[in-house]
Amino acid sequence: MRRAIALAARGLGSTSPNPVVGCVVLDAAGQVAGAGFHQRAGGPHAEVHALREAGERARGGTAYVTLEPCNHTGRTGPCAQALVAAGITRVVYAVSDPNPQATGGADTLRAAGIQVGQGLLADEAEAGNIAWLTSVRLGRPYVRWKYAATLDGRIAAADSTSRWISSAESRADVHRLRAEADAVIVGSGTMRADDPHLAVRGINGVTQPLRVVVDTNATAVKPGARVLDDAAPTLIAVAENVENSATAHLTEADAEVVRLPRAAAGLDIPALLAALHARGVRSVLLEGGPTLAGAFVAAGAVDAVTGYLAPVLLGAGPAALSDAGITTITEALRLHISESVRIGPDLRITAVPATPVSKEH
């Protein structure tokens, strides 16, 4: 199962709107006969890859799968039936499928006389597939907020200079996070300050994430902006009452423009996430500055935080997070640190809300 979980991770960033899944097939003697993972949406599922590799050795064998085998016909056939047809006699899966359209695979397997086990390494498998699972459970993309800051929490100096607070190693690691996400989001402040490119660099064969700019009044993304090149698809979110003339240069550059309701400050974050979800986006890397990050936190729409802390002190300058609707310590968003690791000279800390984000958000 650990090998299946490791295989599943190889599909991060290229399977949406499908989950990442890994499968290992053992023959009747308990020897590995085949292995595979879901590589891209519309392509064969993990079980099919593993069964093809196993061939006749699958008969009488055991399949270890990170997610309950699907039970429906979409762009590919039901994996539960493929396992039955291959003569598998035992299936062990880690996480039950929460998708109402695909669930029931375990019942189909049992009805065919196959022994079924569930829950093996469920926590590890869930962590590896958390973006897709969150999107199914909450009906919106999984959101990871990433930032880089000094040890005293500053993301830029008093004169607004910020290149480079974090190390080259940390910046390379951010490209890994981008490669694993379906979309990367920044706001108008970051757009004006940095003219970011937002595409993945330095990693071969990746599916480029959708570049998203929250530009409420359509004033930050200027003609010639780096996000308007052809390195990756781009979506610009603007307020629904913005004049068409203000977005003409965006559509001329083949960027998609989506119009959303305004919120008290900026755009309605749930509406933005709904629009992205409708486009097949299941995971988001939020790279925006303190204002946009604050809006996401206030909306209850941050599922994980990854902070790169550099051994640097500034003493002044903007903080990583601004108005998040928190006015007193009792309202603080408490986090659980799930990982801390050295990245070059920096410390990368990953944390998740101590109380899981609810459906209401």
Describe the structure.
By secondary structure, the protein is of the alpha/beta class. It is 25% helix and 24% strand. It has eleven helices and 14 strands. It has helices at 2-9, 46-54, 79-85, 105-111, 122-128, 130-138, 168-180, 188-194, 248-252, 269-278, 290-298, and strands spanning 22-26, 32-37, 62-67, 90-95, 115-118, 142-150, 183-187, 210-214, 234-239, 256-260, 283-286, 304-310, 335-343, 346-353. The strands form two sheets. Strands 10-9-8-7-11-6-12-14-13 form a nine-stranded mixed β-sheet, with helices on both faces. A five-stranded mixed β-sheet has the order 2-1-3-4-5. Helix 3 packs parallel to helix 4 (105-111). The model has no long low-confidence stretch (mean pLDDT 92).
What's the topology here?
Layout: H1 2-9, E1 22-26, E2 32-37, H2 46-54, E3 62-67, H3 79-85, E4 90-95, H4 105-111, E5 115-118, H5 122-128, H6 130-138, E6 142-150, H7 168-180, E7 183-187, H8 188-194, E8 210-214, E9 234-239, H9 248-252, E10 256-260, H10 269-278, E11 283-286, H11 290-298, E12 304-310, E13 335-343, E14 346-353
Parallel strand pairs: 3-4, 4-5, 6-11, 6-12, 7-8, 7-11, 8-9, 9-10
Antiparallel strand pairs: 1-2, 1-3, 12-14, 13-14
Helix pairs in contact: 3-4
